[in-house]
Specification:
The chain has 576 residues and is of the alpha/beta class. The protein has 4 domains: 149 residues, ANL, N-terminal domain (Rossmann fold); 175 residues, Rossmann fold, CATH 3.40.50; 88 residues, Luciferase, Domain 3 (Luciferase, domain 3), CATH 2.30.38; 109 residues, 2-Layer Sandwich (GMP Synthetase, Chain A, domain 3). 39% of the residues lie in helices and 21% in strands. It has 20 helices and 25 strands. An 8-stranded mixed sheet has the order 2-1-10-9-11-12-13-14, with helices on both faces. A hairpin with a 2-residue loop joins strand 18 and strand 19. Helix 4 crosses helix 5. It is globular and about 70 Å long. The chain starts with a helix and ends in a 12-residue tail after the last helix. The C terminus is likely disordered.
Length: 576
């Protein structure tokens, strides 16, 4: 039986219980397990009446919602291959992906999405609205017949430096991953913050979700919740994210680093405005935590008499904040039930992870790619190492290759890219998937991600530089800088492009501070402040927020040339 059969049985078990709800205009729209099965059956009936053949591709273009979920399950259950697409992406980019995989049908969430595709692809496949599909005749209740080797989805990569590629995932890939994620969530539910085990009461998980389902990690979280019979609440308006998080009071939810960074800044700003004794205690506790981690944990601060390398004053303010300040922050931020924040898609600033740990909120990191069914490693809730991404999941092997490249093999690794044999052969060599990521692994098997191989800057001196760690350090020093991108391929030294409302002297001070701890070839010796942030809309970020470094370098080619021509007033070589 495939993972789909397992999910259908789980929904049948929760036939009378609400399993999925979306918040629209402040109101919750919900479905029970039985109602969701009925919606899936109706969509299956519509698809069956279209005369589609097993293995045909069906594009799914819409925002998160109950009908998106029902249609996703229905397409796979009918033996078709679902191609989820990002509703916020430009129509011409979406059409390019669809022309690559040639869907026989495009299911659109609203008329705006449908009309945008129709305008770009005049002679394309039929475009049908969700409402047409679910207004169709009676549904089907037969058991889905899907073998482990059957492709169930094609998810297009973000394309940071080139054309997006369609990643084919099979039922076997997905089934293995759901077993791993569900097992890790069981462990999370059993583990207290100090690593000991708790007695777990029989209560369904409450999960909050805001990330688009068209991304692999987000989709795996959706399927995991359906499999576990969790109550999954969907945000449909990002401007209301903070309030809805508090209202739902989830046990856990999936995040990207950008949100956690914003949450951290918002708390700092609010407490600064509050002032008084609360601000004083908070500031002293933060400083004490920074001085003493990892020698001091919050569990130790709850017992002031316990021996610790931290001095009495530091331990006192951490204890006081733990009594008077941190619980209030936790409750106002996310509610009182949170067991952990789960974070993936991009490296998380270690300082931010430590900040949430200080508040008593574990942050569990996940590492993986679409080609590995979203996940290779997951933090073990019993022992989280800040800055790392945890050990490899069950059944997955990982090792380092040339240039410290992470290589993976296991049942989570995709069979290949859609209709791209050469790209597939390049990625899958010697029985291993070559991730393109640089990593490190310690003696306990915990991994850390250093950067991307293809992002390596090769200086004229022959030195190879991974830009990401240096960029992260500069961002931390700047505070107000939104993004930093290093350049310097084939040049004599590194320079930086910086966005954000920051003055030149502040950027130079940040560079001077970072350069002190770097070897000469890694020092950043010039910068340019970009007036516009890098965004999805201006083509500088991918659909899931990753930097398009090639596009950025091309757009700022003139400014970069000025830096290396020493013409810019923003350039100077710091004394080192």
């Amino acid at each position: 039986m495939s993972f789909l059969g397992d999910i259908f049985r789980a929904l049948e078990k929760e036939r009378e219980s609400v399993v999925l709800q979306e918040i629209r205009d402040g109101e919750k729209v919900s479905v029970t397990g039985g109602e969701l099965l009925e919606l899936v059956g109706g969509a299956r009936g519509f698809l069956a009446n279209r005369g589609l053949r097993r293995g045909d591709r069906c594009a799914l273009l819409g925002h998160n919602g109950i009908r998106w979920v029902a249609l996703d399950l229905a397409i796979m259950a009918e033996g078709l291959i679902v191609v989820p697409l990002y509703a916020r992406q430009a129509a011409e980019e979406l059409v390019a992906m669809m022309k690559d995989c040639l869907p026989v049908l495009v299911c659109c969430g609203d008329t705006g999405l449908r009309d945008g595709i129709a305008e770009q692809w005049v002679d394309g496949p039929p475009l049908v609205l969700f409402e047409e599909i679910f207004a169709a005749s009676a549904g089907l209740g037969r058991t889905p017949s899907v073998a482990d080797s059957d492709p169930v989805t094609i998810i297009y990569t973000s394309g940071t430096s080139g054309e997006a590629k369609g990643v084919v995932l099979t039922a076997g890939n997905v089934g293995h991953m759901l077993a791993c994620t569900s097992g890790r969530l069981d462990l999370l539910n059993e583990t207290r913050q100090d690593g000991s085990l708790r007695n777990v009461k029989e209560r369904r998980d409450r999960v909050f979700h805001y990330l688009p389902f068209c991304f692999a990690g987000s989709w795996i979280m959706l399927l995991t919740c359906l499999l576990r019979g969790s109550l999954l609440t969907l945000n449909t308006d990002l401007s209301k994210l903070a309030g809805e998080m508090r209202a739902v009071e989830p046990d856990y939810f999936l995040n990207v680093p950008a949100l956690l960074e914003r949450m951290r800044r918002a708390v700092d700003e609010q407490i600064w405005k509050t002032g008084g004794m609360i601000q004083f205690i908070y500031a002293r506790a933060k400083a004490a935590w920074a001085r003493n981690f990892p020698a001091l944990s919050l569990q130790e601060t709850e017992r002031p008499g316990r021996s610790s390398r931290a001095n009495l004053g530091d331990r006192f303010f951490l204890w006081l904040a733990g009594m008077l300040v941190f619980p209030t922050i936790r409750k106002k931020m996310i509610g009182s039930n949170l067991k952990a924040l789960i974070c993936g898609s991009a490296p998380l600033n270690m300082e931010t992870q430590l900040y949430f740990m200080m508040l008593g909120i574990p942050v569990l990191q996940v590492y993986g790619l679409t080609e590995t069914t979203a996940i290779c490693t997951m933090d073990d809730p019993r022992k989280v190492e800040p800055g790392g991404v945890g050990p490899a999941i069950e059944g997955v092997e990982m090792r380092l290759g040339e240039n410290e490249e992470i290589m993976v093999r296991g049942p989570n690794v995709f069979p290949g890219y859609w209709k791209r044999d050469q790209e597939t052969a390049k990625a899958l060599r010697g029985g291993w998937f070559h991730t393109g990521d640089q990593g490190e692994v310690n003696g306990e098997g915990n991994w850390r991600i250093v950067g991307r191989i293809k992002n390596l800057i090769v200086l004229g001196s022959g030195h190879n530089v991974a830009p990401e760690p240096i960029e992260d350090e500069i961002v931390r020093e700047l505070g107000g800088g939104q993004q930093v991108v290093l350049v310097g391929n084939g040049r004599g030294y590194l320079c930086a492009l910086v966005t954000g409302a920051v003055a030149g002297e502040h950027v130079q001070a940040a560079l001077d501070s970072v350069n002190v701890g770097l070897p000469h070839y890694k020092q950043v010796r010039g910068f340019h402040i970009c007036s516009e942030p890098f965004s999805i809309e201006n083509g500088m970020l991918t659909a899931n927020g990753k930097l398009k470094r090639d596009a950025i370098a091309l757009h700022y080619q003139e400014e970069i040339e000025e830096l290396y021509g020493a013409k810019s007033t923003e350039y100077r070589v710091p004394s080192t």
